[in-house]
Amino acid sequence: TGLCWQQQGDRAMVVPVPAPGRRSLARKDVKITQTCYRVLSAGGGCALLQLQPRTAFPEQLQVHLTLLLCPALGDHEHSSHVGRVLGVPFFLSPETAPTRMQVLDEELLSRLGLSPQQLHHLPLHIHLQELVLP
């Protein structure tokens, strides 16, 4: 997916660009990014994933997970771009979805031992396991 920086009010955000044009790629306004992933375990509405970025861009992993409609636990910025209608997730563009606290169902909050008021303390659950430098 293409990623770029975009000004949203008073702050800059990383946003996906589904079909970047040649001119924006040549000017380096948009960078083509790639992340490989593998589901290691799943259950209870959550999954443990192994992510392997093939390119480097700030917030790349968070944006790619959001595009897969499964934002990272604790991603309070990008998770607001996943909406649900009758339990079916869909992507909301950054222009139409204001950033808000991540919304988790009560069963997951209970398993995490958190109340809705404590949710803002939940850190981003993306952890580096290995760093390979060529």
TrEMBL record:
One of its GO terms (biological process) is pseudouridine synthesis. GO terms for molecular function: pseudouridine synthase activity; RNA binding. InterPro entries: PsdUridine_synth_cat_dom_sf (IPR020103). Coiled coil: none annotated. This is RUSD3 synthase.
